[in-house]
Amino acid sequence: MARNSHEKRAERQWLLILLPSLVLLLAFVIYPAIYSIYLSFTNEALTGAAALRPRFVGFRNYARLFNDAKFWNALFVTFVFVIGSAVIGQFVLGLISAMALRRPIRFRRLFSSIILLPNAAPEVVAGFMWISMLAGGNNATLSRIVGFFGVTPADWLQVFPLSMIIVVNTWRGIATAMILLTAGLSTIPAEIYEAARMDGATPSQTFRRITLPLMMPTILLYMLISAVSTIAVFGLVYALTRGGPGGATEVISIYIYNQSFTAFQLGYGAAVAVVALVISLILGIAYVRAMKVEV
Amino acid sequence: MKKTVLGGLCAILLSAVSTLAQAETIRIANHGQAGIDAMKSTVERIEKKYGVTVEVVEYPAPDKDYLTKLLTELGAGNAPDLFSIPTTAAVADMVEAGYLAPVTTEFKAWDGYANLYDVAKALAVSPDGETYVMPFMLGIQEIYYRKDVLEKAGISTEQPKTWRELLDRAAEIKQKTGAYGLLFPAGVSWGSGAFDEGFQHLLVGSKTPQLADADGKLDLNGEGIKDVFGVYKELIDKDLMPTQPLLGPEPWVVPKYQMFPAGKLAATTCGSWCYIFDWGRESKNPIPEVTKVVGTWTVPGQNSGQYVLANLAAPWAVNAKSANTELAIKALMEIGSIETQVSYAARIGNIPASKDAAKNADFQKLAELVPIHAAAENGVFLKQASGFGTVAEGVARATEALLRKETDAAGAQKILVDYVKETLGDDKVK
Prior knowledge:
The structure holds two protein chains of two kinds.
Chain A: H1 2-39, H2 49-52, H3 60-66, H4 69-102, H5 108-120, H6 123-134, H7 141-148, H8 156-159, H9 161-186, H10 190-198, H11 203-231, H12 235-240, H13 252-262, H14 266-291
Chain B: H1 2-23, E1 25-31, H2 33-50, E2 53-59, H3 63-76, E3 82-84, H4 91-96, H5 104-109, H6 118-124, E4 133-134, E5 137-146, H7 147-152, H8 163-177, H9 193-203, H10 223-237, H11 253-262, E6 267-271, H12 290-293, E7 294-297, E8 299-300, E9 306-307, E10 309-312, E11 316-318, H13 325-335, H14 338-348, E12 351-352, H15 361-364, H16 370-375, H17 388-403, H18 409-424
Parallel strand pairs in B: 1-2, 1-3
Antiparallel strand pairs in B: 3-11, 4-11, 5-6, 5-7, 5-10, 5-12, 8-9
Helix pairs in contact in B: 2-13, 2-14, 9-17, 10-17, 10-18, 17-18
């Protein structure tokens, strides 16, 4: 009986400790999410008559969304952006960096620091920094560099907008990929490599038959984290292109912003956000199930 | 017990003091250092005259970002007491949203009212017949051209009389100098400028010169709108207007601040501010003897007529939810003083809305603005209606499609109509 009372007190103490976190979670996550869902069923706007007297419009925003070519364009751009920068760019370069830095090479710490640097810059700062590299035609730093090799200068953000934001996001995300994949690599026992080497396995065979299979749980987890964080990228794209030109880089986060805070249609913007969230959830669950990974 | 009562009394006293202190402070939103500098003496005057503290909050510089921040705060109910509105197109929508306090009575009783240009008074009246803004500065817009570049190439600097003549002149400039012949701001990145500084110049001289009907509906299917987009189409297809810079995040930088001073763009729409802020003494890339080498044309009509567009340049308004509306309205009237008008004119290059400014010694020193001030009476404008903000965004999207050569004039008009209908509802558009 005394033990039971002690347990109850401990439980109350834990609840007390958790309470601030729960309150914050409720105030800043649960409530805004529920409010967004509510908004998506209204014609709420930041200006005009709807700002004063918003109306419940049922599923009108959702019906409009499925006929909205710009929404589908935003989904497509987001898909290409995620595959390009998170899955291909960051992962491949991150893995190469992680494997290279495992070896006892000279200036290893210096290389590690250089690779980590992009992560130190906030998204928007990185975006503005890259504008000087890419925008401005002949004056762009990249134009000057490639011009030295006889390549015609260009306003890179206009000519290859999506490719350029993929490159910049890749640059920014390599460090995270490298850290996570390095952690994964460190879990593979050195003896296995030693045994493979004694069996005469080539580096390619070692990679395909040892490194890759044993790294798979880490890789899949990284892919999931990376894809989710890339879908949420906003500041970088906003600083570089604001979604332009002509919607070429209008990823879903920019589209939501544009609808809500440029067109001032909060209800419609919320509907897009809800659909984007549902798509992300479905993709995430399907991805995890397909790969049979327990998260 | 005594301690508790004493503590409670102290808390109530502190709360009352802090409430009183808040009532004695008014918050003003301003954007850009030039605007803040221009308001400095006005702020001091308000503080002295009404015994209040004025807190000036700097807002983002690009108009589009400023408007977003302002509307978000107004929507959330925590906006400043006084603010300027970065685009006239937004005023009617903000009135409809209930954000602005009506100031009709105070405005008409204000001692500076009689001396305002009629165009300023007319622009200040909202579709509901009330006044919500202080129209203390006018943006007088025309076409600014490089007189020196044209003269050197033997091209006429005479006023073009029709759209055709204007387009032909632009083609001649391109052919003889290699420079781009004409720029109308366009595209999404330019924000409301695509409408304010481009589209409406041509629309006022078209076959259908207004967008708003008497009943407040938007008539976007007019022939004039298609014809205006046709002008853009020709400029773009014939490579008479720079397009690539307009698709970037800061589209005004390359054409206005680099190409025009370098003579690589020979003509562009601009306002009175350009002689000071864009290419004059406040510019980072000034054109030497700017008033001599840069001339102005009025915007010709489609078949005849000459149009000088007058806009309210960032009119000021009072937050309807201000904690102290009465005081904020008094401060608003101070912003209308000749002193403030001249201060703004000197730093930003807009035109004082008061005729009396012409007699002001400091204004007389602004030689480049004096003749434009005198011409302000002839300014024309689009009758405002709710939904103009959305139309401005629709024009930006339509002109961006033209810039990217994705559509023709009729297609651009359809983009505009569809966007406004989608956003505001079918019943809002005629």
